[in-house]
Amino acid sequence: RIVYVNGAYVPEEEAKVSVFDRGFLMADGVYEVTSVLGGKLLDFAGHARRLDRSLRELGMEMPMSEADLLAIHRELVARNDVVDGMVYLQITRGNPGDRDFAFPPAGTPLTVVLFTQSKPGLADNPQAKTGLRVISIEDIRWGRRDIKTVQLLYPSMGKMMAKKAGVDDAWFVEDGFVTEGTSNNAYIVSGGKIITRNLGSDILHGITRAAVLRFAAEAQMEVEERPFTLAEAHAADEAFITSASAFVMPVVELDGQKIGAGAPGPVAKRLREIYLDESRKTAV
Ligand code: PLP
């Protein structure tokens, strides 16, 4: 695999990042994951915009133009022959040359790393037909979940808790309300309405979420952006998640109890189709 590190395209074995890099020592960095379908990037502009925001919220600046960023994404997709898969991008506060809690002086170059992951048949994931089983776990993440940082230890632990419970994923719950999934936004369908938590600092502002809510409104589907309780989720007609790599994925079981009929519901299925169709049209 050819990866990108600070301006150079190199074989992954030759890629180097300092042991003093703040991403490595302090999880002081942000990331984006952009899906590739048919060799093209989905929702690229949305991911670039959120990256810019994540960096600014942490006092960093986009180290290149959006056009240059797109060119690197495309170059990696081409060099690695990615048809379906994703491009991972990470920008950290760089290497101050020593370990120090204080931020390095302005002008310290940021570390920019990108690599690809091939996932043949990504859009035909068989899980879309069966749906995911999830458990709920307490949300003990930090208070700025709207910033897409590489501080992913608790979400990783959440995935492991799900694995141990024999299911696919976990939904975080705070004060009785569902926030989001370990790596996705969470939705229920109840009384014909699509309900998902409103944007704030307690969830990541999903790029797929924004697109799906736009398509839902265009299709005259009713959407309510508000926190919903775990009890509401248990009693819902359907549930689903969204993310750049899962697109729209039905959820059929929560904490060992079936949601609705215990099978992917019509709203999730329809939104998945619309999302895949529409986002392919604007892929770059
Ligand atoms: N919420 C969390 C915590 C995530 O990690 C992610 C994606 O990684 C999402 C939501 C979905 O965001 P997006 O649709 O931009 O992939």
UniProtKB/TrEMBL annotation:
Keywords recorded for this protein, A-Z: Amino-acid biosynthesis, Aminotransferase, Branched-chain amino acid biosynthesis, Pyridoxal phosphate, Transferase
Catalytic activity of the protein: L-leucine + 2-oxoglutarate = 4-methyl-2-oxopentanoate + L-glutamate; L-valine + 2-oxoglutarate = 3-methyl-2-oxobutanoate + L-glutamate; L-isoleucine + 2-oxoglutarate = (S)-3-methyl-2-oxopentanoate + L-glutamate
MF GO annotations: L-isoleucine-2-oxoglutarate transaminase activity; L-leucine-2-oxoglutarate transaminase activity; L-valine-2-oxoglutarate transaminase activity
Domain of life: Bacteria
Pathway: Amino-acid biosynthesis; L-valine biosynthesis; L-valine from pyruvate: step 4/4; Amino-acid biosynthesis; L-isoleucine biosynthesis; L-isoleucine from 2-oxobutanoate: step 4/4; Amino-acid biosynthesis; L-leucine biosynthesis; L-leucine from 3-methyl-2-oxobutanoate: step 4/4
Pfam families assigned: Aminotran_4
PROSITE patterns named among the record's database cross-references: AA_TRANSFER_CLASS_4
Enzyme Commission number: 2.6.1.42
Any GO CC annotation of this UniProt entry: cytosol
GO biological process, one term: amino acid biosynthetic process
Top enzyme class: transferase
Cofactor(s) the record lists: pyridoxal 5'-phosphate
PANTHER family named among the record's database cross-references: AMINO-ACID AMINOTRANSFERASE, AMINODEOXYCHORISMATE LYASE
Family in the record: Belongs to the class-IV pyridoxal-phosphate-dependent aminotransferase family.
Function text: Acts on leucine, isoleucine and valine.
NCBIfam families in the cross-refs: PRK06680.1
Protein name as catalogued: Probable branched-chain-amino-acid aminotransferase
